[in-house]
Design a protein that fits this description.
Strand order of the largest sheet: 4-7-6-5
Number of domains: 1
Structural class: alpha/beta
Strand content: 15-25%
Number of helices: 7
CATH topology: TIM Barrel
CATH class: Alpha Beta
Helix content: 25-40%
Radius of gyration: 20 Å
Length: about 220
């Protein structure tokens, strides 16, 4: 979205400079913090991101990933140090049910939010629903994304008013197990070697980290 650019200021105080982190799909950088960026009065030779603080979106609850039985089974097989990360590391039509519930004032009083999954439809379905029920928080509670394309998908879910995001599934082993079916499992953000029980943290693990840094509890995304 376009926005009006604020007047430029030069800041020398480190506390007021901009912080940035980078991750790459080859894992050469993994949530690596870059040198602090100083505001400049001269035009930037690279891409410019305009932040429109006058236009904001939903208040964020946060980002996470599910601890369903398969993940817990693999976590249990890891060493305690790996489990607790103590080692240093270099719009579908399925809206009829919530519509029915929220249209009943007696039932709506017990609803704290509506959860969406990404298996059918488009993120715009959440925007459609919000226009009908603007006071009801929306949450995206199941559906993992992968790679840079996945990051773009996640941004679209946030732009369409998801105030939290929950990936599915968190940990499987290198063979995609355990998995009771009926569908074949995709690679998870963390995989465990079934022989050594050592975890591997994939690019998507760090991708989620970028969102978690910027989308913690009670933060409100601005338009860019």
């Amino acid at each position: 979205m376009a926005s009006r650019r604020a007047p430029a200021h030069t800041l020398t105080d480190e506390a007021e400079s901009a912080r940035a982190w980078v991750s790459t799909e080859d894992l050469r950088f993994r949530l690596t913090e870059l040198p602090r960026l100083q505001w400049q009065t001269t035009p930037s030779p690279g891409a410019v991101v305009d932040v429109n603080g006058a236009e904001t979106f939903q208040v964020m609850l946060g980002f996470g990933s599910s601890l369903e039985p398969a993940t817990c089974w693999n976590l249990w097989r890891m060493t305690k140090a790996d489990r607790y990360n103590s080692r240093p590391r270099p719009g579908d039509a399925g809206l009829s049910h919530p519509r029915t519930v929220l249209s009943d004032p007696g039932a709506a009083a017990f609803v704290a939010g509506v959860a969406f999954h990404g298996y059918v439809g488009q993120p715009s379905g959440m925007d459609e629903f919000r226009r009908e029920f603007p006071s009801v928080p929306l949450h995206f509670t199941e559906g993992s994304v992968f790679g840079l394309k996945g990051g773009i998908e996640l941004i679209e879910r946030l732009r369409n008013h998801a105030s939290s995001y929950n990936a599915w599934v968190t940990v499987l082993d290198d063979r995609g197990k355990p998995n009771n079916g009926p569908f074949e499992a995709s690679r998870t953000i963390i995989t465990v070697n079934p022989e050594t029980f050592r975890p591997a943290l994939h690019f998507d693990y760090y991708l989620y980290g970028h969102f978690m840094r910027a989308g913690g509890p009670s933060l409100t995304p601005a338009s860019v």
